[in-house]
Structure formats: structure tokens, C-alpha cells
Amino acid sequence: MGERIGVVGAGYVGLTSAACLARLGHRVSCVDTDAAKVGRLRAGEVDLAEPDLAELVAEGLAAGTLAFGTDPEVLADAELVVLCLPTPPGVNGEPDLDMLRSSLARLGPVLAPDAVVVTKSTVPVGTAPRIPGYLGRPDIAVVSNPEFLREGRAVRDFLHPDRIVLGADPPDSPAAHRVANLYAPTGAPVVRTGTASAELAKYASNGFLAVKASYVNVLAELCEHCGADVHDVTAVMGMDERIGSAFLAPGPGWGGSCLPKDTSALAYAAEEAGVDFALLREAVRVNDRQRTRMVRAVRLAATGRPDGELSGVRIGVLGLAFKAGTGDLRDSPAVAVATALARHGAEVTAYDPAVRSGVDGVQVVDDPYLVAKDAAACVVLTEWPEFRELDWRRLAASVDRRVVVDARNLLDPQSLAGAGFTRIGVGTTPRR
Ligand code: UGA
Predict the structure, then answer these.
(1) In 41, 61, 111, 188, which residue has its Cα 20 to 30 A from 213's Cα atom?
(2) Is 258 considered catalytic here?
(3) Residues 134-168: pLDDT tens digits?
(4) Are residues 317 and 371 in contact, defined by beta-carbon separation less than 8 angstroms?
């Protein structure tokens, strides 16, 4: 039998880690302060729409290798305790560590003498050496093991990671070796560093992705002004192995629960250190501007002018989640654009296959064809593949004007043209 592992936090990182570690042969106890959530998890109910997660939880519960609770006491015999707590943004992007600190204060008296604490939570550089103090246990070893799980692919990313990062001081400490063994079945390369490098590597990766996506969004704007096609340009760029073809899709901006938070946290850390990392602030500024640009594109499509009057104008929105494959609305550019249109007076009706309610000022419907009714313009804001398969002739029958802003460059121009729609993409159509 594998190790006895405690996981603190049953959010998407905690629950995925717990279920996957049980799959890898360990005995896992996962604790969360939310008693109602723990009750549901004990009954095998998973409210996250992560592929394969519910099956893995059911498998672990049935095998007796996965258990859920609210009391940290159950972690008294854990050999490794994995921290998967949220670190939400505080003032100026500085991460708020209150939840982490109070959880560690409760955990400290419980931990076995040779337990190792593993931080998966994204924490500011310099946190690891402070953890024994937060625990009130100077004897406890800490290993920083940042996660790189994407929403909608979390189980796959956990079981088939690109790399495992293990930070310890010193890097080859026995505690780091124990954590490395957990991941041996994945066969992934292990990078051993000090804790500061491991903590920074997580922020650095998300910050770089944010800069990459903002770069492409400005490039798309430039393409619109000089007759170039952003797909051709990014195809050429992506074939250079130094650049890589991922994360080169323009859109309404990047969002979600991680990229925005981590980019701001990295910018804050640089400022605190007196390092000029204006590049990051600029990526954030470009991202805000990109959302505004999409609002202007929809206004232009609906009224003929980028600042046209939207009062009483009906707009159909396809997609609200921050990306396809999830119902997550946190910091979603789609929500930002839809609510901005509503604030300008538009009557916004939206459909998203994974969202049924909860967007201020926007009527959320459960049928994509309802968004088109009397719409002066439709806009695709999330790249759900099913939007490509919609019957655009059927949509054409109920709209007021046949114009669609394809903010994800998702739709097939020929089917749109066949249905009589004017399609306005990002980085392709000349627009002023
Ligand atoms: C991101 C990272 O990709 C993960 O590696 C990391 O572990 C995770 O944050 C985290 O810190 O927990 P995730 O938030 O699931 O994962 O989302 P991504 O797939 O990275 O997408 C982020 C945003 O960028 C989305 O709004 C997406 O639409 C946008 N994006 C992505 C683009 O605008 N263009 C692209 O080409 C790719």
C-alpha cells in the first residue's frame, strides 16, 4: 500500500489531487471546512464538471482509499499533507494568505512528528520557510510542489504532467525525495529546486501565458489594420519551436480563476522587490482593452457605429464561461463583455451549455436558438465547439440583423455566409 496522505482543501486542485493520488495507490484523507460539500463528497457527489473526476472519486470511495472529513484530526497519521487552499487576490494584487494561515494554525498541533507539508496552493515567493512558523511546528519539513492543472483537463494534467516541480531547502532533502516518489508512476520529469524557485516558477508560467495571449491580441488588432490574417501570422510563429503553437489564439481576453490573479500577484511581487516588470502590467492593461474592443465591435455590428446607442437594442450572446469545457464564470471575459453591453442599455440574452444563471443584467436561456430572437447582432464569446454546429439558417430566421461577431474565430465562415450572415472575426476583418 502507498503513503498515508492528507489533502487540505476540496476545491478543484484539492479534489483532483486527492482523487488522483488515491488512483496512484495511496490512502488519502481530504479535509475541507465546508461541511455540506464534505457531506456531498462522501455520497460521491462531485459538483465540478471535470472530466473523469466523479468516476475517480467514486472509485476511491468504493475501494476505501479516499475519505472526506471536516476535522483536521483525521490527518494525525498522515505522512504527507498536501495544502490545496485558495490564495485569493487582496489589495493591489497581493495574495491574501489569511485562509492558509488560519488553516495551518489548526493543522499544526495535529501533525505527526515526521510529517511533510507539501504546498500545492499558489503562494508568494518566500512562503515555504514561513510555514513551520504558521504551523507552530519548527520540526516540520516543507516541500513546494506547485500545480499546473488546467480547468477542464485537471485529471489528465495530474496523471500525465509535463513536469513535476519540487522545491525544498536544500533541494535534495529527504522530504523532497518522499514527495518525488508519489509521482513516480506518472513518469514525468522532475525538476528539483529551492523553495523560492519552485514558488516563482508557478507565477512565472502563468504570467508568461498571459503575456503571450496579450501579445497575440494586440497582434490581431494590428492585422485588422494592415490586411494581414492573424491565423497565418500565428501559424508561422508557432512553427518556431522556440515560440510554440499553444496559447496563440486571439479572443476576448484571458480570464479564469488563475491567470489574472497570478499575473497581478507576480507584478506585485516585482514591485515589492523594486524590479521593473512593467511588461506584466502592460499585459493586464492590454487584456482590459481587449474586452473594451470586443464591446465596441459588437456595438459597431449592432448599430453601425462603435459608440452607437444600445438602449433597447437586443444582443444575442453565445458563451459565458471563461473558456470552453468549464462552467466557470470567475473573471470571465465573456461575462465582462456581456455585462458591459447590458450596462450600455442593450437587452442581452445569453446561452452557454454549462451555465444556467447568475450573470447580472443578462437573461440566461437554456436554448442557443433563443438568443437570436430579434437580435441586432450576435456574438460568440466562448469557444464551445457546439456553436460551430449550430443551424445558422435557423438562427437567421429569427434575428433582426444577420451579423455575428466571432470573438473566438470559431465559426465556419462558409456556413455563416450560406445563411446570409456577415461574420466579423478577430484579427482578420478590416475594421475601424
Ligand atoms: C491556467 C494554466 O494554463 C494552468 O497551467 C494553471 O495550472 C492554472 O491556470 C492554474 O494556475 O491553476 P486555466 O485557468 O484552466 O489554467 O486556463 P487556461 O486554459 O490557461 O486559459 C486561461 C485563459 O486564457 C482563458 O480565458 C483562455 O480563453 C485564454 N486563452 C488561452 C486565450 O485567450 N488564448 C489562447 O491561445 C489560450
Answers:
(1) 188
(2) yes
(3) 999 999 999 999 999 999 999 999 999 999 999 99
(4) yes
Q: Residue 247, annotated ligand binder?
A: yes
Nearest CA to ligand 1 atom 3: 150
For residues 158 and 146, is the Cβ–Cβ distance under 8 A? no
Q: Model confidence over 70-125: pLDDT tens digits?
A: 999 999 999 999 999 998 888 888 889 999 999 999 999 999 999 999 999 999 99
Q: Which residues contact 71 (CB under 8 A, 6 or more apart)?
A: 31
Active-site residue identified among 20, 84, 258, 378: 258
Residue of the CA atom closest to atom 1 of ligand 1: 150
Comparing CA positions, the residue from 369, 377, 294, 375 lying closest to residue 339 is: 294
CA atoms of 303 and 141, how far apart (whole Å): 62
Give the residue from 140, 134, 136, 138 showing the smallest Cα distance to 114.
140
**Dist CA 139 CA 135 (whole Å):** 10
Q: Is 213 in the pocket of ligand 1 (CB under 6 A)?
A: yes
What gap in Å lies between CA 170 and CA 352, rounded to an integer? 48
Whether the predicted model's global pTM rises above the 0.90 cut: yes
Q: Is 208 close to ligand 1, i.e. is its CB under 6 Å away? A: no
Task: Name every residue whose Cβ is closer than 8 Å to that of residue 192 and which is 6 or more positions away in sequence.
Answer: 166, 167, 168, 171, 172, 176, 180
Domains of the chain: 4-192 (3.40.50.720), 194-432 (3.40.50.720)
Q: Angle at CA 22, nearest 5°, toward 328 and 46? A: 30
- Which residues face 349 on adjacent strands? 316, 363
Beta bridge partners of 380: 318, 406
Map grid coordinates 450576435 to a residue: 378
Q: What is the torsional sign of CA 345, 289, 379, 413?
A: positive
Helices 195-226 & 278-303 angle (0-180, nearest 10): 40
Task: State which amino acid sits at residue 166.
Answer: L
